[in-house]
Write a structure and sequence with these properties.
Length: 676
């Protein structure tokens, strides 16, 4: 929930052209593709892998494409009704010609099966327009007679290179294509006189605890650096492909295809990692490598090492591979924090939450398990016991045990501490939807999040909540963590009269205003409605607005009049919302305390101590596992060579801990001997 994102105006064009000449474009292909996307999820997947909104020549088509892919990325259906709603929310429905345009696109589509061909036509025309734009800019630089010709030529080269880089390339490669390159490298190292790593898989105790990796489930594997996240994930991937003959797709945002292939080769060959690094291989090592290469070459493993992947691109590529090979056995993503979400996400907490949600949607779409690796918070290294816990996984914050939640079924307030003690699940609570309305939701469970520095935030109405520095709160401009807020900032709190079992603190009616930041949004969207400030004033019936008016806060009736004059739904939602924007009057450090968090599916927020707060991001994971190796923190540990796999969350089964052997010279995990 934040300002809807504005996009290009209808008179914008992605590239300039020579006078009297029309830039390359194909409106029929654009219309046919958009119509196909309104009819088929497969068409959306194909298009989103190739195109971005600014690839469309007609800006209205770019708006529609953006709305369709945004809905699809959020797991929502994309049809004329939902897309019209999305465009209305962004203030762009009139700009594209109204809802009738969407219906027309859908009914006039020749064939959804040709979506890939339409997308290719659009991509090629967009590249040509960018090339024309770059050429025009290069020509202007030449005519300007620059003093530094070398620098100008370098700039010209970079402009053309930027155009070339926009072309989408296939960064997936089957492992048998990568093994030849890896063997060439080994031979080269061997001739120089140079080493490898390896690791087998199949973890019996872990399988007993989880009953194996389940389809449609999201598994999160977390650890601090150098604890073996990638090693364990590759063990699991090898097990699925080699012993189960199930297709596996690995997205590596950190390591290259060659590095991952080398790790898997070492794991299967059981060759010392140092030998792979320096190429100092014995004859016996070559025999092991040859045998391992034969096995891996037949394994259905694909590796994509694009370091700039978004969740949308991962979903598109995974669906594409599934259509080629049939059902996928496993998707691995290494690792979560390196992914990017919407560029318009309010902050990193919201972005990671959206990525996490997208991973769960991916697991459901593909009907296969998704294993997502996650870097853990550095804060765990400050504790005496450095075993990871759920709090270390998240980029969101925590609340204290005495935080009060109002039940939606009884109207009575209960504390997070009491809910944890009772073990109650699926608690009816109040939550805020995307239109700022209080609706009934359910809190799946409450869990401890360790011990953190806590601050008390107080508002002008008398509300107070105790939270960690990184716990997000809702402002008009989106979710912001406590440590990014200041005295004077305004937060969303339930409105008097709409709040069951009120907490005894009300915001005065005079303070029930929309923050002045709303004018930033108004100025941004007016051109989309074909309005100037003067025309807006005329619609409002005001003869002479003074400039200072645009810096004022708005009463609800003024907000409603403004929304009506512009025809903007988001402004209308603000004017009729169930929240008041309460002012922060103090933020006080209280010291370290035990803290807790909760999960709320769907809306991902709840009302705590009368203030709207965000919930944790682990709500999307079905299973959360952590790796703990004591030797990482204690070099003289008696548990050297042993790893604890901590099952911290298991939605459909028990939690617990299993021990695995860690073979450091192979960077490999293995089963412990029974009884150890």
């Amino acid at each position: 929930m934040a300002f809807p994102v504005d996009t290009r105006h209808d008179d914008d064009r992605p590239a300039r052209s020579a006078p009297g000449r029309v830039p390359p474009h194909n409106l029929q292909a654009e219309e046919s593709l958009l119509g196909a996307m309104l009819l088929s999820k497969d068409a959306i997947a194909v298009a989103s892998e190739v195109l971005s909104p600014d690839d469309f020549y007609k800006p209205a088509h770019g708006h529609i494409y953006d709305a369709v892919t945004s809905l699809h990325g959020a797991g929502e259906p994309a049809d004329p009704v939902t897309v019209a709603e999305e465009l209305t929310r962004a203030g762009l429905l009139d700009a594209i010609g109204g809802a009738a345009t969407l219906v027309s696109l859908q009914t006039r589509t020749p064939a959804t099966s040709n979506a890939g061909h339409y997308a290719k036509i659009i991509e090629e025309h967009a590249l040509l327009r960018r090339l024309i734009g770059a050429a025009n800019e290069i020509a202007e630089m030449g005519y300007d007679m620059p003093e530094d010709v070398t620098k100008t030529v370098d700039r010209a080269e970079s402009l053309v290179f930027e155009v070339a880089q926009r072309r989408v390339t296939d960064t997936m490669a089957p492992i048998h294509d990568l093994l030849d390159a890896n063997l060439d490298r080994l031979e080269h190292l061997y001739e120089r006189g140079a080493a490898i790593t390896g690791l087998p898989t199949g973890f019996h105790d872990l399988d007993e605890l989880t009953s194996g990796l389940q389809p449609n489930a999201l598994y999160v594997l977390g650890a601090r650096p150098a604890c073996g996240k990638t090693a364990l994930a590759l063990n699991i991937a090898s097990q699925a492909a080699l012993d189960g003959n199930r297709p596996v797709l690995v997205f590596s945002l950190e390591m290259s295809q060659l590095e991952l292939t080398q790790r898997m080769l070492c794991s299967e060959a059981r060759v010392d990692s140092k030998k792979l690094r320096n190429g100092n291989l014995a004859e016996a090592d070559w025999q092991k490598i040859a045998h391992a290469t034969g096995r891996l070459a037949e394994a259905p493993i694909w590796i994509d090492d694009n370091p700039n992947l978004t969740i949308m691109e991962i979903r598109s590529k995974a669906r594409r591979l599934k259509s080629r090979v049939g059902d996928l056995g496993l998707v691995v993503v290494d690792y979560l924090q390196l992914m990017t979400g919407r560029s318009s996400a309010e902050n990193r907490q919201v972005e990671v939450s959206e990525i996490s949600r997208g991973m769960k949607i991916l697991a459901r779409e593909l009907e296969c398990p998704v294993l997502a690796l996650s870097q853990l918070s550095r804060s765990l290294e400050m504790r005496a016991d450095k075993r990871p816990m759920l709090a270390d996984l998240r980029e969101s914050g925590c609340l204290t045990a005495d935080t009060e939640i109002v039940r939606a079924d009884t109207g009575h307030s209960v504390t997070l501490g009491s809910l944890l003690a009772s073990g109650e699940r699926d608690i009816p609570i109040w939550t805020l939807d995307e239109r700022y309305r209080l609706v009934r939701g359910h809190m799946t469970h409450v869990f401890p999040s360790g011990r953190k520095m806590v601050y008390e935030l107080r508002t002008a109405s008398g509300r107070a909540v105790k939270a960690s520095a990184n716990h997000p709160f809702l402002t008009l401009e989106g979710w912001f963590p406590l440590d990014k807020l200041d005295v004077g900032d305004r937060l969303a709190v339930p409105r008097a009269g709409r709040w069951p079992a009120a907490m005894g603190t009300d915001v005065p009616e005079a303070a029930d205003t929309v923050p002045r930041e709303v004018w930033t949004y108004v100025r941004k969207v007016l051109p989309n409605y074909g309005l100037s400030l003067r025309q807006l004033e005329q619609r409002l019936g005001v003869d002479d607005f003074v400039e200072s008016f645009y810096a004022n806060e708005l009463r609800r009736d003024q907000g409603a009049a403004l929304a009506s004059a512009i025809g903007d739904r988001w402004l209308g939602d603000l004017a009729t919302s169930d929240v008041v924007w309460d002012t922060i009057v103090s933020i006080t450090e209280l010291g370290e305390q035990d803290v807790y968090d909760a999960t709320v599916p769907g809306t991902h927020n709840f009302v705590a101590d009368g203030i709207v707060v965000h919930n944790s991001i682990e709500q999307d994971a079905d299973v959360v596992m952590f790796i703990y190796r004591d030797e990482v923190y204690n070099p003289e540990s008696p548990d050297r060579g042993t790893a604890e796999i901590l099952l911290a969350k298991h939605r459909n089964g028990p939690t617990g801990m299993v021990r695995l052997a860690f073979l450091d010279h192979y960077t490999k995990f293995a089963n412990m001997a029974r009884g150890v």
